[in-house]
């Protein structure tokens, strides 16, 4: 079998010591698989996703991503360049006045030249049905349009280095 993209081994996590959220959690995501993480409200689904991209760190156990054990901020920075996370609320993710600025933020942060970023923005928006949305005011979009823009902000990272999974 091929190497998993993500692997948790016996991960424990709690926001405070008296209330564990994940306990001895084992999880693997293999290339080409689509996985639905299903559970009641408050069961730890979002927590699991935040652990994958290093927004939270496990209290015990280990996290491997893309073939390497990940523990430091530098490790998870590398993971975040390849694994995009969409927040539940688009308003938590979108913070620029216009759609183009939000989609450009990631690639500009990676040090891409402005001209290339303009191309990335256009090529990311087009297939999502958001061609021509560049100058639209983000907070005035519909809920569904905002979700698509958040997806665009993540996909723009793929066009920036070609490796997002
Ligand atoms: N920032 C936080 N601080 C303290 N407790 C939190 C925090 N975020 C989530 N929790 C608690 O952790 C548990 C798991 O939350 P979460 O992962 O968001 O659940 P799910 O996504 O499955 O609904 C819940 O009991 C929730 O109240
Ligand atoms: Mg959740």
In short:
The chain has two domains: 6-80, 3-Layer(aba) Sandwich (Rossmann fold), CATH 3.40.50.300; 90-161, no CATH class.
Task: Describe the protein in words.
There is one protein chain. This protein is α+β, with helices and mostly antiparallel strands and 165 residues long. It is 38% helix and 19% strand. The protein has 2 domains: 6-80, Rossmann fold, CATH 3.40.50; 90-161, no CATH class. It is built from 6 helices and 4 strands. Strand 1 (6-16) and strand 2 (19-29) form a beta hairpin. The radius of gyration is 17 Å and the shape is globular. The relative contact order is 0.14. The protein binds adenosine-5'-diphosphate and magnesium ion. Adenosine-5'-diphosphate binds at residues 15, 21, 39, 41-47.
Strand-pairing-aware structural class: alpha+beta
Average pLDDT level: 93
Task: Tell me how many strands there are.
Answer: 4
Largest sheet strand order: 2-1-3-4
- Total of domains: 2
CATH level 3 topology of the largest domain: Rossmann fold
* Biggest beta-sheet profile: 4 strands, antiparallel
Beta-strand percentage?
15-25%
Shape: globular
User: CATH class of the largest domain, please?
Assistant: Alpha Beta
Helical residues, percent? 25-40%
Quick one: CATH superfamily of the largest domain?
P-loop containing nucleotide triphosphate hydrolases
């Amino acid at each position: 079998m091929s190497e998993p993209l993500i692997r948790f081994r016996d991960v424990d996590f709690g926001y405070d010591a008296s209330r564990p959220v994940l306990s001895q959690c084992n999880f693997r995501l293999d290339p080409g698989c689509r996985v639905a993480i299903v559970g009641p409200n408050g069961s730890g689904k979002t927590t699991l996703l935040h652990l994958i991209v290093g927004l939270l760190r496990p209290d015990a156990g280990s996290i491997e991503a893309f073939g390497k054990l990940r523990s430091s901020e530098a490790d998870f920075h590398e993971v975040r360049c390849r694994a995009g996370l969409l927040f539940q609320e688009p308003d938590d993710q979108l913070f620029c006045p216009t759609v183009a600025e939000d989609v450009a933020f990631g690639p500009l942060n990676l040090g891409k030249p402005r001209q290339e970023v303009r191309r990335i923005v256009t090529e990311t928006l087009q297939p999502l049905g958001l061609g021509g949305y560049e100058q639209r005011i983000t907070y005035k979009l519909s809920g569904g349009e905002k979700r698509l823009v958040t997806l665009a902000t993540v996909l723009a990272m793929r066009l920036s280095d070609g490796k997002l999974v």
